[in-house]
Amino acid sequence: MSFRLRAGLITTAVIGAGAVILSQGAAFAAPPAAPSHHSPAPADSLRSLAAQSGLRIGTAINTDLLASNDQYRAIAASQFSSVTPENVMKWEVVEPTQGTYDWAAADRLVAFAQQNDQLVRGHTLVWHSQLPAWLTAAAPSMTPDQLRAILKKHVVDEVTHFKGKIWQWDVVNEAFNDDGTLRDSIWLQKLGPGYIADAFRWAHQADPKALLFYNDYNIEFTGPKSNAVYQLVQDLKARGVPIDGVGFQTHLDTQYPLPDLLNNLQRFSKLGLKVAETEVDVRTTLPVTPVEQNAQVAGYTTTLQACLAVRACLSYTVWGFGDAYSWVPGVFPGEGAATIYDENLQPKPEYTALQQTLALAAGTPGRNNPRR
Ligand code: G3I
């Protein structure tokens, strides 16, 4: 079967279904109404097709490109029903100087989302990376009480600033090593493992309606890391800590086998948690051969199929679009081509594979049978 589906076939498959974007569930308070200037998304767009399964399809957004590149902005608006700030809600960006907040870029993204009927995944409150320089410098000499107070202030202030505007928050990000031990971050060193539960409690107090997620990579595979996260969230639930979901980042590489993601989405959802794929991309060695491109298409297709198959899977988010703007080449030299649009922002076979997968799934669950 060719994965290059002609646009005409997709259009025929969904004609008559309209391009209505479904609300993702009554539990989430919709952001305040903003002036709406958008045009309806095309019926064969990813967001229109996903809506027919009650699924939000999202992307990470580079806010510099959103401001400077009309083509990027048009794709972001027309193809996706959820957005995640790639960097601008991270601590180093929002509090570059201690006590002085800069919400400007993040506020612009939230406004863009409201104008385009998109929900926002907030990313991320507690992480070991992209901390402000003032904090990294001062943390080693702080007492645990001082550091805890600073962390609490950060979580409360940021969640409060965006209260009512964030659908899902990545409250704690990447707290585990691949062997299942807790990462040796300043948070663990100074505060002990209790910082995780504290962060969820603080975030919930600041915005009781936001869905609160633990988010990590390499938990798509069953193994020490996903088992450790499973035990963590099971324990948090048992203790009444306000956690709502687990985000599976899903950064795949064609040199490794595909993960047993469906199994993991299912076992976490059976704990009574929502799940989401939060940062999907599929990198490969360059230049891309036909074999590798097939593997990339398989990576996107199977991860989307897994989300569609699990009712608790609320959203499928790609980690940016446009291979020229991906984080991958900077971190994995010699690898790239990880996104669903090429260097010229033209859709790749990976895009078409998502489109085809969504079209085939349309209707189950759907408007009258929502995800939950
Ligand atoms: O802030 C500076 C800016 O002042 C300067 O002009 C610019 C010049 O290159 O660099 C800027 O910082 C970069 C930042 O992105 C914003 O562009 C950092 O050097 C760069 O390291 C940073 O990379 C981000 C990375 O997280 C940091 O760890 C990537 O864009 C972003 O895609 C990536 O996203 C992470 C998720 O948050 C968590 N999961 C893994 C994922 C991929 O690493």
Describe the structure in brief.
With 372 residues, the protein is of the alpha/beta class.
Description:
The protein has 372 residues and is an alpha/beta fold. The chain has a single domain (46-362), classed as Alpha-Beta Barrel (TIM Barrel). It has 15 helices and ten strands. It has an eight-stranded parallel beta barrel, surrounded by five helices. Helix 13 links the parallel strand 8 (274-285) and strand 9 (313-318). Helix 8 runs parallel beside helix 10 (195-206) and helix 13 runs parallel beside helix 15 (349-361). The longest helix is centred in the C-terminal third of the chain and has 20 residues, at 290-309. The protein is globular. Mean pLDDT is 90; it is low at 1-36. The protein binds ligand G3I. Ligand G3I is lined by residues 86-87, 129-130, 173, 249, 279, 327.
Q: Class, according to the CATH hierarchy?
A: Alpha Beta
Distance between the termini: 33 Å
Q: Could you tell me the CATH topology label.
A: TIM Barrel
The CATH homologous superfamily name equals Glycosidases
Oligomeric organization of the protein chains:
single chain
Strand order of the largest sheet: 1-2-3-4-5-6-8-9
Major sheet details? 8 strands, parallel, barrel
